[in-house]
Amino acid sequence: MVASAATRNVDTYIHVVTSQSKKDKYTQEMVEDQMEVMNEAYASMGFSFTTAGVDFTVQSSWAAATPGSNEEIDMKKELRQGSYGDLNLYFLSDLGGGLLGFCYFPTSNPDANMQVLDGCIHLAGSLPGGEVNGYNEGMTAVHESGHWFGLYHTFEGNSCSGSGDQVGDTPIQSQPTSGCPASQDSCPDSPGTDNIHNYMDYSTDECLTEFTSGQSQRARSLFDSFRAGK
Question: Which GO terms describe its molecular function (predicted)?
Answer without folding.
Answer: metal ion binding; metallopeptidase activity
